Amino acid sequence: MTQSPTPALDIVGLVKDVGPITALDGRMKRIISNISLQAHFGAVTALLGANGAGKTTTIECAQGLQRRTGGSISLLGQDPENADATLRARVGVMLQDGGLPPAARPLALLRHVASLYENPLSVDALAERLGIGEFSNTTIRRLSGGQKQRVALAASLLGNPEVVFLDEPSAGLDPQSRIMVFELIRELRDAGKAIVLTTHLLDDAQRLADYVYIVNKGESVTEGTVPELLRQSTATAAHRVMTFEARPGLDTSSLQRAGVLCEETRPGSYRMGGSLEADDLGRFGQWCSSGSIMPTSVNLASQSLEDVFLAIAESLDTEIS
Amino acid sequence: MSTLFGGAPVGRPASLSRRVFNQGKYEASTMLRNGEQLVLMIVMPLLGLIALAVTPILDGMGDSRINIATPGILALCALSTAFTGQGIATGFDRRYGVLRFLSTTPLGRTGLIAGKVIAVLAALAIQVVVISTVAAFLGWRPEVGGVLLGIPLLILGAITFTALGLLIAGTVRPEATLAITNLGWILFAALGGIVLPADKFSPTMAAIVDWLPSGALGTLMRAALLEGRVDVFAIVILLAWAVAGSVAAIKWFKWN
Predict the structure, then answer these.
(1) What are the backbone angles phi and psi of residue A224, rounded to the nearest 5°?
(2) Beta carbons of A121 and B22 less than 8 Å apart
(3) What is the least distance, in Å, from the CA of A50 to any CA of chain B?
(4) Does ipTM come in above 0.90?
(5) In chain B, residues 147-206 whose CB comes closer than 8 Å to chain A
(6) Residues A142-153: pLDDT tens digits?
(7) Are B96 and A99 inside 8 Å of each other by CB?
(8) Which A residues, 78 through 117, put their C-beta within 8 Å of a C-beta on chain B?
(9) What architecture is domain A9-232?
(10) Is the Cβ–Cβ distance between A223 and A236 less than 8 Å?
């Protein structure tokens, strides 16, 4: 894809040790051994990995919240470890745990955060945009997870930053909040901001990200746009999955053939997967009509980012063992 | 709908003084709206003042009861707000990630600490006005010179106890901070020479208490407000605690 030459964030060969760890006889533990990443303006860059892969540590090093052990980081052309107020004003941060005082009320807190900027966005407009008005005077400890996330997101955007870090932005979001937050992230991208988000949810990455970095056990594993990643993975290239719901205990042996497996995953739920071809769908139709089977739902999916991710994780585990 | 970010100017920080002032104002108003903090900051020192004024505990120590009691109670205010109050608030802010979030805003870590000191001083100013007014009604008549001497000494005490409170809040879990700073408040207040002059107890006890920040601040406040002088030994001890507390807090404070 075409990207502007100077990235908003450039991480090269990040290394991070923590410790000393008592369980390791006082030695340091290396939690990130080699992560590199570039984030560009006008794009959503996702750092995707399982819990404990090093996503949060990576972006906290990029924010200057943690000191790195090795490698280099350039955030808007500066080292985030020496960030001054001017750089911090150009960068918005939404922490994974929100970082909001439980006794505060959303609107008062947002007004205070806005007062730290010379030219903040309108608190009211942002609160309205994120639907914060309906609970603006409830203490933060009483809010739902999704409401807290929206307040934390608003707080990170008050300065109208050029770079926005969102650590697990959809964690704990109800469907309505999720739509609201995703729309806002796209709007930020369209306004030319560089958005860096972490997620362990492949669906989020697939929906939001222009460019994805997959990290595993503290290392960059692969990167690309979502379509590129889907093409890249040969392990599951021919993988399609059909799931359907019907009455329990059906004989599915006639649906199977070499390379295609059908099984009842739990009573009434069936999964047919492998190198599915058009003929397999024909056989499925015949199977239904001959057995007077009316499925209550049928779903056919090509491989998803999840398959790519699982295949990568699997191949790494095999390499290690 | 999409004009929220596009047309707006990108982030610039407010001036340092405004950031620190706004943070101090915000923290002070948070403190004053917290019921438990108000009990600790206003009710307990007031009860102490009245108890010392109406009971014979301080009798035989020279001057009138209220004249001996008030300097110590003012010192107790600094202990309540700076050490216990600010310590507990910071401990829980640290747990909830509030310190980390604010340190990513233009406020930064230095601004956050400066804001806390301002909040402590603002709350202390309110305490001093309330306590002094009640003490005046009970017959407290300090020398003007003593008052002018007492104010900077009380500020030094507040800074010392803020450093010690932040040191505890920044190194142990918030529950432990809660326990340590509350226990510290009781021990300093009852036995630490802050309210009751140390020579009220045994000479051995007095010798120990003289080296504590609480004993030093109590002695300094009484020397200033009763005799209009600076106790040199006590100010050396208090300054040493201020420096040691600040250095240790800067070195060992963990943000997360």
Answers:
(1) 155, 175
(2) no
(3) 22
(4) no
(5) none
(6) 999 889 999 999
(7) yes
(8) 83-86, 88-93, 95, 97-104, 112-113, 115-117
(9) 3-Layer(aba) Sandwich (3.40)
(10) no
